[in-house]
Write the structure tokens for this entry.
Amino acid sequence: MTEKKLLILDDDLMVGKTIRFIAEGAGFKCFATDDPDEFFSQLEHWQPTHIALDLIMPQMDGVEVMVELSRRGCRAHIIISSGVGSRVLDAARRSAAEHNLNIVGILSKPFKPSALQALLSIDSTTFQTSSGRAGKGVFAEPSKIFADELTKAIEQRELFLVYQPKIDCRNADPVGFEALVRWQHPQRGLIMPNDFIPLAERTGLIDQLTALVVRDAVSWFSCYFQKSNLQLSVNLSARNLKDLQFADHVADLCKQVGMSPASLVFELTETSTMEDPVASLDLLTRLRLKGFLLSIDDFGTGFSSMLQLVRLPFSEIKIDKSFVMTICSDESKTVIKSITELGQCLGLRTSAEGVEDAEALEFLQSIGCDLAQGYLIARPMTGAVALDWYRDYTSKFTSGSAAL
């Protein structure tokens, strides 16, 4: 069993001692400091599995610390704590997410011991020590992944797909799956897409990688859900939009397996369509002409959302999970409701990802959002497990006993 170690950075030594006392009661070894230099020294040599970080400190504020943690490739579980307002805390969470840090939760001061205990109890069997050395189920350090490794991974089938279910918000019926790619490196362990997709885009491997994902996803889906009304979602990269023949290749693939193009939804971010607007418009129009559906992903996080909706032939808006996961705030609720109403006015289906609790799902239902996806429904699963999940879910739902 991996030893649990909590490194605490807080300029209030009494708060640090309190966190340490609670964590030690939960089986953690702890080290607390109010000195950023000592903190980073311990980070390097002590290799914590968890970090408790105060946002407001005189020498180096929490955002500066998070930037440095990201630079060092830290994969420890991080708990952000502060007495600042909820909007600042939410902004700090989003900042950490943009830096690919593993934030397990926000601890608003003053906090209850049970709140800290709950965050510390979140499954920590998959983590990476802060210097990138292996813990159980280790994630690789992005800066040390090389193009030749990725080329080999594609050729030797080290990449595999997982599938996350989507449901209809109105009646909880399953409506489909999103295919997500993972890399099981023989030495480094599990590598997530944020750590290798940018490399694939830089090195020109993205077309080969996307072809693999589409082929495997379509093969799995057509094998088990050919006669269903479900849909399969696959992500596209900005680089894929430069290949005008992509639409023909996918159409041929669907024809070979007998899959309707209307069963396949391509998801792409609004920013990806801006790199080459003309090429994007050409390819996306061709995809729609062939019957495929298009979803604008992470909607609301870019700067030209409205322009892209008017300009490009999307059929679905996917609300970014950063709004859904902070749905307790009035600001996020307002944004989600506005996007949903915009989609309804434009005749577009709306989908929300990051649904992790019943409150979020209930709110989405109340405003007329169409689809929901997130841990409340199911985590991403391998094909075999996803098939078992679907059979079990539909069996319970048919019998009237299914509940989220």
Notes: The two ends are 32 Å apart (CA to CA). The first helix runs from residue 13 to 25.
